[in-house]
Design a protein that fits this description.
Blueprint: H1 3-19, H2 41-44, H3 48-65, H4 97-103, H5 105-109, H6 119-127, H7 129-136, H8 139-143, H9 152-162, H10 164-167, H11 193-197, H12 200-209, H13 228-239
Length: 254
């Protein structure tokens, strides 16, 4: 089998996996009923093109780039795929669609494709350039917000399974378990001094350390159960609860 045919076969198999019964796996530790929770404001803020791009990404791109865009999909690292881009670690959160098109121009035209990622030419042939551009529009959302080393979109799912019971789906401290916490009420992230000040290291430390330094607090030290990456994802999502703390979701305009 030629290299080109091997690449095409891998992409087709990956696409079939994504379009069949399987879907991007939930974040580590996520409960199976997380999808039943109403869509958060972060998803509601997507443009129509970004929403379509999300569907395309979840059908094709996640198999290489991972559900959270960190380059850790199930076929990443294989001979024909190599090491995919980590969208969260780069500057993608701040890029417009025009800048994304410029960055991926080699893939769009098929000229000068990175020899480490030759399969991208086949991906574009499968999607066609217009739909590939639509998928690109979703990348800044995966990496949002810039300035925080985490993904709010990934943190959204983690928050719903780990934090919403106490802090509420809207981050207002009014979760269904909040009434049982009489001594120290859950934090209201919509009126939080650390979030309002953009002290993301402070928010990280609070989540990581929990309430062990606050007498009567029931908040567990999440640093003992979650990775540093997961906590930064939570920080990124918590930041979205304060409408003045972050710029708008990027990638909408030229």
């Amino acid at each position: 089998m030629t290299v080109r045919k091997r690449i095409a076969a891998l992409v087709i198999v990956a696409t079939a996996l994504a379009c069949g019964e399987q879907a991007p796996p939930p974040p580590e530790g996520a409960a199976g009923d997380a999808a039943a929770i109403p869509a958060a404001a972060l998803l509601a803020a997507l443009s129509d093109e970004q929403a379509e791009g999300r569907a395309l990404y979840q059908s094709v791109c996640w198999t290489c780039h991972g559900a959270g865009g960190r380059g850790d999909g199930p076929v990443a690292g294989t001979e024909t795929v190599g090491v995919p881009q980590d969208f969260v670690a780069g500057d993608y959160a701040a890029l417009s669609l025009a800048e994304l098109e410029h960055r991926f121009q080699a893939s769009l035209t098929g000229d000068g494709v990175d020899p480490e990622h030759p399969h991208m030419r086949t991906v574009v042939e499968l999607l066609k350039p217009d739909r590939f551009r639509t998928a690109l529009s979703y990348i800044p959302v995966l990496a949002y917000p810039s300035g925080i080393p985490g993904s709010a979109l990934t943190g959204m799912d983690l928050y719903q399974t780990r934090c919403a019971a106490c802090h509420g789906e809207l981050g207002d401290g009014q979760g269904h378990a909040a009434d049982a916490l009489k001594v120290v009420e859950p934090a209201n992230f919509r009126a939080d001094t650390l979030v309002a000040a953009g002290d993301w290291n402070g928010v990280f430390d609070r989540i990581s350390e929990g309430g062990r330094t606050v007498h009567g607090s029931s908040m567990p030290p999440w640093g003992a159960a979650l990775s540093e990456t997961q906590i930064w994802d939570l920080v990124a999502y918590v930041a979205t609860f304060d409408p003045g703390a972050l710029p708008a979701v990027p990638g909408r305009g030229p």
